[in-house]
Amino acid sequence: MSSQMASAQSSVQVYGIVDLGIEHLSGVANGAAEESQTRMTINNQQASRLGFRGTEDLGGGLKALFNLEAGFAPDTGVSLQGGRLFGRAATVGLSGDFGTVTIGRQRNAIFDLHLQFAPLGYTSYGAVAPDMAFFTQRADNSVKYAFKRGGFSSALLYSFGRDAVAGGGTQSEVAGNSKIGRQIGANAAYASGPFTVGLGYDKQNGTSAAIASETDTRTYAGAKYMLSATTLYAGFMRRKNELAALDATTDLSWVGLRHPIAGKLGIGAWLVKTDVKDTPNEATLIGASLYYDLSKRTQAYLNLARSSNDGASRQGVSSSVQTLPGGAMSGIVAGLAHTF
To answer: Is 0.90 topped by the overall pTM?
Structure first.
């Protein structure tokens, strides 16, 4: 249970997740050969974190709020997100009838949106397997406005320089060139009865003066439908990366479902397609997760996935591994996730 200190006007909460499993892979690229590998893996069902959040009632419906959230690898104890202390979130803001405004390091608009339209969110074998950057980038030096009213929700984000760590900080908030590292994003979602639909957009400028005017954009659409106890999911995202070294357009699409089997036992399944436009490079990922809630805070899981590739595509079952060009990979991971 989360620990909490509270007074009449303010509260502070300590919370976290620890997720760790044992994984076996076949088809891992090792030079010119495909090998098998057994290893300990992190964040298979949810990302491990330690966080602090709080609010203060300022009166008149206005509240001050903060969130500090550290991402870590429970197999080694090291900090993630480039070694940042609070790499998952470091924000302060105000909320009221007008919505919520936060400033600092925070999730981008597509990251927020995707949480609604994937069977198990950011499961390691899921839609993030092709490219974590499709979804999970966070922005340093950012301002976000979020609004929710009834079934409608939306958010806007602007970053003055999204990465203050890479390049020794030279790629963020550079004097005389406001384009370097700039990021803008927006999302909107609407829920009515069993149906929810959402749209998202994200644009990032290059991180040096030479490519500051070149952009990497993502356009996102997602939907889900609750059919009795089963939730159905579908989504599509186009990434158009015009940076000189890449200059590629990639389409990512997925369908999936989540269904409670009996009692505390449930299953999620998904099919993910990756297509690099105007090339033979394609990949298909099929995955499933069987999970059992041992309690409200502890979940045991067994995840399975199979990736197959055409052309020069090397996609593995997760973003941390690759197979040979045109190859295939299988993976299975059993683990435990605990929230507090």
So the answer is: yes
